[in-house]
Amino acid sequence: MPSDMVLPLCEKVRIATIQDLERIATVAAAGFFHSPTFKYQRRYHAKYPDDTLLSYKSEYRDSILDPDCVVLVAEDDVKDHEGLHVYDALRSAVAYKPASSLDSRGQII
User: Fold this and answer.
1) How buried is residue 103: exposed, middle or buried, by Cβ count under 10 Å (0-12/13-18/19+)?
2) This protein's superkingdom (predicted)?
3) Residue 7 domain-assigned?
4) Would you tell me the crossing angle of helices 21-32 and 49-65 to the nearest 10 degrees?
């Protein structure tokens, strides 16, 4: 990102860091599951949920490290029982990170 670039201030939205990757991958897998193209892009998501998460993690890592890209995250309050709202295979993934690690303000991405 150019050093002279000024981003507008948005409450609870910030530039992603490498430390956000595990949560970004979880949110992407859970959210994009409902996309009409997910079943074609992630054909074996049910059989290999960890591969799905690692694929998203790799894609977003590349984007975060790319100086021509900006990855944003939205922070929110923790929702109880978040894991009940993701697809079954994702819940069984070793790399699945439900809302459990809060920042100092009690927020999570």
Assistant:
1) exposed
2) Eukaryota
3) no
4) 120
Burial 71-94, CB ≥16 within 10 A → b, else e: bebebeeeeeeeeeebbebbeebe
Q: How many domains does the chain have?
A: 1
16: closest CA among 31, 1, 2? 1
Q: What is the pLDDT of residues 58-94, one digit of tens each?
A: 999 999 999 999 999 988 876 677 767 777 778 778 7
Q: What span, in angstroms and rounded, lies between the C-alpha atoms of 50 and 91?
A: 10
Residues in Cβ contact with 3 at an 8 Å cutoff, skipping those fewer than 6 apart: none
Residue 64 lies in a domain: yes
List, for residues 17-72, the tens digit of each pLDDT value: 999 998 899 889 888 888 999 889 989 988 988 999 999 999 999 999 999 999 99
Domain ranges, residue 74: 13-108
